[in-house]
């Protein structure tokens, strides 16, 4: 008798399951799905890689390019990269169907052109980062920004040694 009562109550509730995956499913607002990097906005600052708990984002320089590489296979969808990005270049999408037969599908990569130091010729920052920094300083100081931090330190030490004479 008691069982019949439970059955009756549950039938009164109606259908509570979804036909997913036979029908698409709506995710709620604020859902944290696959992170996506906008290659047009990213400046290559590295902030996202610094805060990513499982090191799913790596940043490295190669052949005159700074590479920002995201590996979804390690991502825990915490959203810290999106919170920290100063350019709003990385966001968590609503996409959650991420299974694949190829590991290559789990990588996203942004390649950013880099600037050479006018003293030593070494690539040291991205054009986008430099352009952003140049907007913050007066025009007469912009020339010095084309020199890498190591050369600046070397030149400063050199000048300081002259000052002691
Ligand atoms: S995605 Fe944002 S935080 Fe990450 S390197 Fe690009 S600009 Fe920096
Ligand atoms: S969502 Fe979290 S784990 Fe995934 S890439 Fe961003 S910081 Fe890393």
Topology:
Elements lengths: L1 H12 L21 E3 L9 H5 L5 E6 L2 E7 L8 H5 L5 E3 L14 E10 L6 E4 H8 L14 H15 L2
Antiparallel strand pairs: 1-4, 2-3, 3-5, 5-6
Bound molecules: iron/sulfur cluster (SF4) (2 copies).
Summarize the structure.
This protein has helices at 2-13, 47-51, 80-84, 127-134, 149-163, and strands spanning 35-37, 57-62, 65-71, 90-92, 107-116, 123-126. The strands form 2 sheets. Strands 2-3-5-6 form a 4-stranded antiparallel β-sheet. With 165 residues, the protein is of the alpha+beta class.
Explained architecture:
With 165 residues, this protein is an alpha+beta fold. Helices cover 27% and strands 20% of the residues. The chain has five helices and six strands, in the order αβαββαβββαα. The chain has a four-stranded antiparallel beta sheet with strand order 2-3-5-6. Strands 1-4 form a two-stranded antiparallel ribbon. Strand 2 and strand 3 (65-71) form a beta hairpin. The model has no long low-confidence stretch (mean pLDDT 93). Residues 35, 52-54, 56-57, 70, 75-81 line the site of one iron/sulfur cluster.
């Amino acid at each position: 008798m008691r069982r019949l009562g439970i059955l009756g109550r549950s039938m009164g509730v109606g259908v509570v399951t979804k036909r997913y995956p036979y029908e698409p499913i709506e995710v709620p607002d604020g859902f944290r799905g696959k992170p996506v990097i906008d290659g047009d906005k990213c400046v290559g600052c590295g902030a996202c890689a610094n805060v990513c708990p499982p090191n799913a984002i790596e940043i490295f320089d190669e052949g005159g390019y700074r590479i920002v590489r995201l590996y979804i296979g390690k991502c825990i969808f915490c959203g810290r990269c999106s919170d920290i990005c100063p350019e709003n270049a990385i966001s968590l999408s609503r996409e959650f169907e991420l299974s694949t037969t190829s590991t290559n599908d789990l990588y996203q990569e942004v390649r950013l052109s880099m600037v050479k130091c006018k003293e030593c010729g070494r690539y040291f920052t991205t054009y986008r980062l430099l352009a952003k920094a140049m907007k913050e300083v007066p025009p007469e100081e912009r020339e010095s920004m084309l020199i890498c931090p190591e050369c600046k330190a070397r030149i400063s030490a050199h000048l300081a040694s002259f000052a002691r004479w």
